[in-house]
Amino acid sequence: MSNAKWSKLLKAIAESDIKYIASEVLAKDLVCDTLWHILLADYLGNGKYTADGIAGAIRTKNIEYVIIPFESINELSRMKDLIEKIGKSEYDIDNEKLIIKIFGYR
To answer: Please, what are the domains in the chain?
Structure first.
């Protein structure tokens, strides 16, 4: 996914009141198999980086996917609706684990 699409998505999530488990959001980049804890925030305001408290900022264009966990199915559904409204993002939902996986590349 391009920086512009990630920026639009990150901004929409940040401006929404959707409740997700922020401390457990994970991202996998294209370079390695490690899942990194990230913050769903646009680090510099230009969509090029997402904040990460452990490994530093991660380039959004290098994100293979992001996993967002929820405490309720209602909040997960609200996130799904937000992603659909923004458009052009591929995602999978696991209703049992209450997670949504948003793909940058599939």
So the answer is: 3-103 (3.30.1240)
